Amino acid sequence: MASSCYEEAHDYADAARCAEHAGEHRRAADLYIRAGRYHDAAASHTAIGGYAEAGWLLAHHGHDPAAARAVLSAAPAVDSIADLQVRAAETLLRRLAAARCDLIDENSTTAATHILTEVQDALATGAVSRSQQVEDRAVTLAETMHRYDQVALVFAAAVRAGRPGAATRWRQWAQKTLGTDIILPTVVTR
Question: Poorest-confidence range of 85-89, 101-105, 115-119, 165-169?
Answer without folding.
Answer: 85-89
